[in-house]
Amino acid sequence: MKNSELKIYKTEDGTTEIKVKLENETVWLNLQQLTELFQRDKSVISRHISNVFKENELDKNSVVAKYATTASDGKIYNITYYNLDVIISVGYRIKSQRGTQFRIWASTILKDYLIKGY
């Protein structure tokens, strides 16, 4: 990833820590990171992502990217990453405690932006 930056996201309760990639003014997470964030199986996250595209909520070409990533075995793999738009869309579909926490957080941020006019 060119011009990428690595940030650490830690949940409020401290139980989950995710390294997120920042590039082109957005956050990128892969499927494994999304499962950690929302505490759901890959199949559940994948189904929600698939539905986001099937329902034309987002344009797949604009929000999905493949990046070469070095795994713990030293091999380089092309991994699919999803940007913040997908993360938000999935977050509003997920039924889990973490999904609820995400929606509360996202709604608070949106409300602040609308009221305070950042």
Q: Tell me the strand percentage band.
A: 25-35%
What is the radius of gyration? 15 Å
Query: How would you sum up the global shape?
Result: globular
Q: Enumerate how many helices there are, as a single number.
A: 5
Helix proportion: 40-55%
Largest sheet: 5 strands, antiparallel
Order of helices and strands: EEEHHHEEHH
State the end-to-end distance: 29 Å
Give average pLDDT, whole number: 85
**Total tally of structural domains:** 1
Describe this structure in words.
- Strands 1-2-3-5-4 form a 5-stranded antiparallel beta sheet.
- It is built from 5 helices and 5 strands, in the order E-E-E-H-H-H-E-E-H-H.
- Strand 2 and strand 3 form a beta hairpin.
- It has one domain.
Q: Strands, helices and their partners?
A:
Elements: E1 5-10, E2 17-23, E3 26-30, H1 31-38, H2 42-54, H3 60-63, E4 64-70, E5 76-83, H4 84-91, H5 97-116
Antiparallel strand pairs: 1-2, 2-3, 3-5, 4-5
Keywords:
five-stranded antiparallel sheet; alpha+beta; 5 helices; 118 residues
Quick synopsis:
The protein has 118 residues and is an alpha+beta fold.
